[in-house]
Amino acid sequence: MASAKEIEEGNQIRLKLNNSGMLPVVTTDANSKEVLMIAYMNQEAFDLSVETGEAHYYSRSRKKIWRKGETSGFIQKIKEIKTDCDQDAIWLSVEMVGGACCHVGYKSCFYRKVVKDSSGGVALEFTESEKKYDPKKIYKK
Amino acid sequence: MASAKEIEEGNQIRLKLNNSGMLPVVTTDANSKEVLMIAYMNQEAFDLSVETGEAHYYSRSRKKIWRKGETSGFIQKIKEIKTDCDQDAIWLSVEMVGGACCHVGYKSCFYRKVVKDSSGGVALEFTESEKKYDPKKIYKK
Asked: Which of A123, B7, B31, B69 could hold B74 in an S-S bridge, CB 3.0 to 4.6 Å?
């Protein structure tokens, strides 16, 4: 097993997958730098992303490789792939095709911010003024 | 249980924690928009972050709440907290205190990018030219 120092200071890829064989991935828009989504990759999704230059994830709900945009056409062209100190997370910087990322219809999956409400509790406030597309038209059964 | 529509279209917080009671968090620099780190929160870390305005995570290795900067002094002042469509991930936009985030010494934990090497394989290339501090001086046993 590689030492922490080898993992942190080296130029070798030694991806550290979790018990389910995955690691979290944050994807940002190469132009606006906005965070678009957080998803997961397994080794195959990582290899496919490197090989094809298009973002591939592992869908935990569908239990299969998920080529982003395979249904919607909203493909993500990878501009840069980074890994973190522990090599247990990935950062993808991508060029969006179609101007949207989220299955709900918004550009980013992060379309709501946390705010304190009048009663001292916490609520969500929408930060994207409109959906970029109608999910019902794109995700037909 | 809340429906997917209620979770995605509503203004109520209904954080969806994983089987270990956590969810992944991406933290970006509010000024440069750079991704600094990916870590995890449990409900307590989320509540403490909202309440104090300083980033709190859950340390999986130490199995306890981790107030970022508690040892190093590199505190993260929260400018914005967002959640995603499924409410199973968090995005923190922060102002960094001390100019560094990573325990290895770099500003961001993502200090290496994935490149193809001459033999057709994949390697890592350092993207930060120097460490911001000497970890040995800060993290004394």
From this structure: B69
Which residues of chain B neighbour A13 with C-beta distances below 8 Å? 114, 122-124
Residue A126 resides in a domain: no
Tell me which residues of chain B have a pLDDT lower than 70.
Answer: 141
Spans in chain A with pLDDT lower than 70: 141
What's the structural domain count of chain B?
Answer: 1
Domain coverage including residue B34: 4-104
Chain B residues whose CB is inside 8 A of the A110 CB are 82-84, 91
Angle at B136 between CA B131 and CA B139, to 5 degrees: 105
B92-131 core/surface letters (b: 16 or more CB in 10 A; e: else):
bbbebeeebbbbbbbbbbbbbbbeeeeeeebbbeeeeeee
Strands B23-29 and B90-96: parallel
C-alpha dist (Å) from residue B120 to A11, B115, B117: 15, 10, 6
Global pTM value: 0.96
| Predicted confidence (pLDDT) per residue in A17-53, tens digit | 999 999 999 999 999 999 999 999 999 999 999 999 9
In a domain, A140, yes or no: no
Cα dihedral sign for B136, A2, B112, A87? Answer: negative
For residue B84, the chain A residues in CB contact (below 8 A) are: 37-38, 102, 109-110
List the structure tokens of A48.
Answer: 């496919």
Q: Is B133 on the interface with A (CB under 8 A)?
A: no
Answer yes or no: is B82 within a domain.
yes
